[in-house]
Amino acid sequence: MIIRDFHKEKTTDRRVSAERWESVRLLLAGDGMGFSFHITTIEAGSEHTFHYKNHFESVYCVSGEGSIEDMATGEVHELRPGVMYALDQHDKHTLRCRTEMVFACCFNPPITGTEVHREDGSYALEDS
Question: Helix or strand or coil: residue 8?
Fold first, then answer.
């Protein structure tokens, strides 16, 4: 059984941050669960384009308000607490945060915890 406390983990190297967002990675590839699980906080007023070409991601909005745009179709969906989205087609998307937003996120395959977004908004696929 794995037990981790978000409040403790955010003071360790499991807290990763970049421009206007931070993520506390509670489960990683090394935990052997087949997915990774993160709590991600994104600053109010920020906009981010991501394209996870090598990973599937599901995201549950815990708090905040914003929107997600599917870059292939131009379709925009409102995000608020209780809304989930899943990038089941490796969808390139733009996330716009009107307020600070907190998300619970799962990645498959799991990330290792050392990834950074590449120029195209993706994570590289780590060697096993």
Answer: helix
Among 52, 45, 34, 11, which Cα is nearest to 24's? 11
pLDDT tens for 48-80 read: 999 988 889 999 999 999 999 999 999 999 999
- Cα 83 to chain centroid distance, Å, stands at 14
Which CB contacts under 8 angstroms, 24+ apart, belong to 69-74? 69/93, 69/94, 69/96
Average pLDDT, the chain: 91
CATH number of the domain residue 53 falls in: 2.60.120.10
- Domain that includes residue 84, residue range: 26-106
pTM of the model: 0.88
Residue 68 is encoded by which pair of tokens?
A: 């997600």
